[in-house]
Design a protein that fits this description.
Helix content is 32%, strand content 31%. It is an alpha/beta fold. The protein has 2 domains: 4-92 and 180-206, D-Maltodextrin-Binding Protein, domain 2 (3-Layer(aba) Sandwich), CATH 3.40.190; 94-178, 3-Layer(aba) Sandwich (D-Maltodextrin-Binding Protein, domain 2). Bound molecules: 1-O-pyrophosphono-5-O-phosphono-alpha-D-ribofuranose. 1-O-pyrophosphono-5-O-phosphono-alpha-D-ribofuranose is lined by residues 118, 141-144, 157-164.
Length: 210
């Protein structure tokens, strides 16, 4: 049987994902000493980890080249449609929020507002739910810059500690959703390798911090 292949999100979630797999009894030394290798054996060789950017974790799992993934709910909300979300891993907790320059009357006036976001679908759905017409501009990072530069009236972005907003003269206008890391599964893998996947999810769930 091929090893169960799991895509882990590089960066902020990487260490916590490895720590959880370790706690659940899978040796993750290869992740610590990975060098430039991209596919790493974990546990007793029955699993392989792939480190990828969040958006690519979703692509690999949806396309079925990885059976499972660990990825933030923010990326799932933005672009994950054809996968099962089977476990809230509890770490990487933060929130989506609408933010704007401090003291600005964001909802005031009749002019169509411009919103900058790394998450245009999330932003679009949020304003659709309010029946509010906005123009959305996709930004790749440091979205807080957009209102400071005069490009947008507000942003839809991730807020963790709130420090980035505060230090740039912005404030939350409205929270949108809470997010955290999730275990996701390819639907075909869920059928074909149900036993292994359920056993893994149960082991991880047992070690989650409550
Ligand atoms: C995220 C997010 C905010 C910041 C929020 O950006 O987009 O900019 O973190 O964190 P805080 O509330 O604790 O200040 P990230 O650092 O991932 O980089 P990016 O802006 O380039 O996407």
């Amino acid at each position: 049987m091929k090893p169960l292949r799991i895509a882990l999100t590089k960066g902020r979630l990487e260490k916590k994902s490895a720590a959880l797999f370790e706690k659940a009894g899978f040796d993750c030394q290869s992740l610590t000493d990975k060098g430039r290798r991209l596919i790493l054996p974990i546990g007793d060789g029955k699993m392989e980890a792939v480190l990828a950017k969040a958006a690519d974790v979703i692509t690999y799992v949806e396309q079925g080249v990885c059976d499972l993934g660990v990825v933030g709910k923010d990326t799932i909300m933005e672009q994950g449609h054809q996968l099962f979300e089977i476990l809230d891993l509890g770490f990487g907790r933060c929130g989506f929020a609408l933010a704007a320059p401090r003291g600005a009357d964001f909802y005031g006036g009749y002019r169509v507002k411009t919103i900058a976001s790394k998450y245009p679908s999330v932003a679009r759905r949020f304003f659709e739910s309010k029946h509010m017409d906005v123009r959305i501009i996709k930004i790749e990072g440091s979205v807080e810059l957009a209102p400071l530069l005069g490009l947008s009236d507000g942003i839809v972005d991730i807020v963790e500690t709130g420090a980035t907003l505060k230090e740039n003269g912005l404030e939350v206008i409205e929270p949108i959703a809470q997010v955290s890391a999730r275990l996701v599964v390819n639907p075909a893998s869920m059928k074909l390798r149900k036993g292994e996947i359920e056993a893994l999810a149960a082991k991880l769930e047992e070690k989650l911090e409550r």
